[in-house]
Design a protein that fits this description.
Helices cover 38% and strands 19% of the residues. The chain is an alpha/beta fold. It comes from Aeromonas sanarellii.
Length: 315
């Protein structure tokens, strides 16, 4: 079928009693990951909250990077009756992770891996405390995604995905990265996932608030208008990272930021999308987390503080 044309035949797949992946959180990125996992032959169940029961869609409307659109039949369940879970992939917004997982406390079988893929930091440790008998894995990803309607998703950019252990039990779960790679094209395991989380946080601190406040595509940050503020953000983040034992420099962080700006030039950041749709942003888990660490170390971060306050006031 030529690129960009629609295949209206619902792609049905037979699911075993226990899908390989249960995905909690079906926003833009969650919908894209559920689609890619399904298309790779890994049966996936989407776990929905009760409020979605009256608004079910007959399938996921998925558009791939090459513009091919198709409807995918993906199994769905609700949080009150989740069914058997082999692996739980959590892709809610950072601020919703704990409330989304709380109904599963005491219900999720011991040993079931919990994979967290959200922006920001400070959440994984709380999940590990809630589920002391489960491997908890933190992840970072740079895939781009867009949601344009109810269960209508577009994959807007291929990126890297990295997983790593939050608790000791998770160290035996490196094989999950290999299985995600079957769907995503690349996924890796990194025992030092904390470093990658900090690097992703630095990029998010720079790109997300500015694009949301000024209503810009990522690529528009490459102009001279934002050169000074991006450098100042990176200086502040580097100071905090160094205090946290993460060797880096402001120049290194700025190079990372500008690389992402270039690679995702046509994309809208998740914070931009959230603000445009009137949804809660992830500013607390991104810039808010940075401010908390800065306060612990007595480090002044006035530029990031100003951006944090501006986003909070504009929500």
């Amino acid at each position: 079928m030529p690129s960009g044309l629609r295949d209206n035949n619902l792609k049905t797949r037979r699911h075993p009693v226990s899908p390989e992946w249960t995905l909690l959180g079906c926003g833009a990125l969650g919908g894209v990951f559920a689609s890619l996992l399904t298309l790779s032959g890994q049966p996936t169940r989407i776990l929905l909250r009760e409020r979605h029961r009256a608004t079910l869609h007959p399938g996921i409307d998925f558009t791939s990077l090459d513009g091919h659109t198709q409807l995918l039949a993906i199994e769905r369940a609700f949080i009150d009756k989740p069914g058997p879970i082999r692996r739980l992939l959590v892709m809610t917004k950072a601020g919703q992770v704990i409330s989304a997982l709380t109904p599963l406390v005491g219900q999720l079988a011991a040993g079931v891996p919990i994979v967290l893929l959200h922006n920001g930091m400070g959440i994984a440790e709380r999940v590990a405390a809630l589920f002391p008998h489960n491997p908890v894995i933190a992840g970072v990803t740079s895939h781009g995604a867009l949601q344009s309607g109810h269960f209508v998703f577009r994959h807007t950019g291929r990126g890297e995905t990295w997983l790593g252990p939050v608790n000791e039990a998770a160290r035996s779960c490196a094989h999950l990265a290999d299985e995600l790679a079957r769907a995503l094209g690349q996924a890796g395991w990194d025992e030092q996932i904390l470093t990658r989380q900090w690097q992703k946080l630095a990029v998010n601190c720079a790109i997300n608030p500015l694009t949301a406040l000024y209503r810009l595509k990522n690529g528009e940050l490459a102009g001279p208008r934002f050169a000074d503020v991006l450098q100042q953000i990176c200086v502040e983040v580097a100071d905090v990272m160094q205090a946290e034992g993460q060797p880096t420099s402001s120049d290194e962080l700025l190079r990372r930021v500008m690389t992402v700006v270039e690679l995702t030039a046509d994309n809208y950041s998740s914070m931009y999308q959230d603000m445009e749709q009137g949804r809660e942003t992830e500013i607390e888990a991104i810039t808010g987390f940075l401010l908390g660490k800065a306060a612990v170390h007595g480090i002044a971060v006035p530029v990031n503080q100003g951006l944090y306050q501006a986003v909070k006031e504009k929500r």
